[in-house]
Amino acid sequence: MITDDRWAALLETRATDPGAVAEAYAGRRRRPLLAADGRTFLLAADHPGRRALGVGDDPFAMADRRGLLDRLVTALADPGVDGVMATPDVLDELALLGALDGRVAMGSINRGGLQGTVWELDDQPTAHDVAAVVAQGLDGAKLLLRIDPEDAASKATIESCAHTISELARAGVVAMVEPLPYTTRDGRAVLDRSDDELVRCVAVASALGASSAHTWLKLPATEAVERVMATTTLPALILGGAPGPDPDTAFDAWRRAMAVPNVRGLVVGRSLLFPPDGDVARAVAQAAEIVHGVP
Q1: pLDDT in tens for each of the 295 residues of the chain?
Q2: How far is CA 122 from CA 117, 134, 147, 161, 209, in A?
Q3: Which residues contact 107 (CB under 8 A, 6 or more apart)?
Q4: In this structure, what are the phi and psi dihedrals at residue 148, rounded to the nearest 5 degrees?
Q5: CA 61, 132, 164, 203 torsion: positive or negative?
Q6: 155 vs 150: CA distance, rounded Å
Q7: pTM, whole model, 2 decimals?
Q8: CA distances from 39 to 36, 83, 86, 144 (A)
């Protein structure tokens, strides 16, 4: 969907007209986070900002920016997709391409915990800040909260997230918090798939900040999703995760999670933007049907 002429125009604007970004945001037609059915389906495209470029067997799948944007524009053209969550560079580009009009646009704040680094769990703000989210008229901001009880780097991340949640609440903007339990294995930060630890992380995330009025959660669709969601009254979106060899398994897990009352939709990135069969439009349409129930 991004033709050579459209791509050339984007590159020219980037080089010669930096003010066009602010103009694009100012002219964006906004909409509520939730669709008329009380649910929402967002794409996630903030992975490259923390050095996570790989998809499946290709460690640099997301390094081709034109290819990534083309996939995002294709997916956002589906009426069942409500919006996108991304770092400033990606959101700016989508705004310049006109792809955010009438769509939810959420920023991503703490991308400092770079994948594979010794400070990976020290997820400090390196992307959007609250002032930019408000000034650009974004509809919310995501915070990654990875907790390892044996890694001191988690402490700074918890403090930073709490401060940012308070700021967003004062501004009346959604804070989309993604709490995940982590452990260190062979010197690397690894996701802890224990449901017990996920429940503990959800309890911590729910209590962060001076107010929870605008806090949402972003959570994996585990086998114990009902138990995890019973830990809180906060609304949540289910995260998609990395693509697997059998997409139907992920789709079934998402359907089950959508039946939980305080689950309000999905946030999916690589699973749909890089499906095994390469058909982005079809994968997105299948996920949209799970969220909104309309084929």
Answers
A1: 899 999 999 999 999 999 999 999 999 999 999 999 999 999 999 999 999 999 988 999 999 999 999 999 999 999 999 999 999 999 999 999 999 999 999 999 999 999 999 999 999 999 999 999 999 999 999 999 999 999 998 999 999 999 999 999 999 999 999 999 999 888 889 999 999 999 999 999 999 999 999 999 999 999 999 999 999 999 999 998 766 667 788 899 999 999 999 999 999 999 899 998 899 999 999 999 999 997 6
A2: 10, 25, 10, 11, 18
A3: 85, 86, 87, 88, 91, 127, 128, 132, 133, 136, 138, 140, 141, 142
A4: -120, 110
A5: negative
A6: 10
A7: 0.95
A8: 7, 12, 19, 22
Residues 6 or more apart whose CB falls under 8 angstroms from that of 70 comprise 1, 2
Helix (H) or strand (E) holding 8: helix 4-16
- Render 156-213 in DSSP notation, one character per residue: HHHHHHHHHHHHHHHHT-EEEEEEEEEEEETTEEEE---HHHHHHHHHHHHT-SS--T
Rounded Cα distance between 227 and 225, Å, is 5
Detail the DSSP E strand segments found in the chain.
40-45, 83-86, 104-108, 140-147, 174-185, 188-191, 215-220, 236-239, 263-268
Report the candidate in 259, 268, 160, 263 with the shortest Cα–Cα distance to residue 216. 263
Rounded to whole angstroms, the Cα distance separating 123 from 115 reads 10
Nearest alpha carbon to residue 93 among 4, 29, 5, 13: 13
- Domain locations along the chain: 4-292
DSSP code for 58? B
> Going by C-beta distance under 8 Å and a sequence separation of 6 or more, which residues neighbour residue 64?
none
Round to whole Å and give the CA distance between 186 and 90: 33
Domain 4-292: give its CATH superfamily. Aldolase class I (3.20.20.70)
Instruction: Look at residue 104 and give its three-state secondary structure.
Output: strand
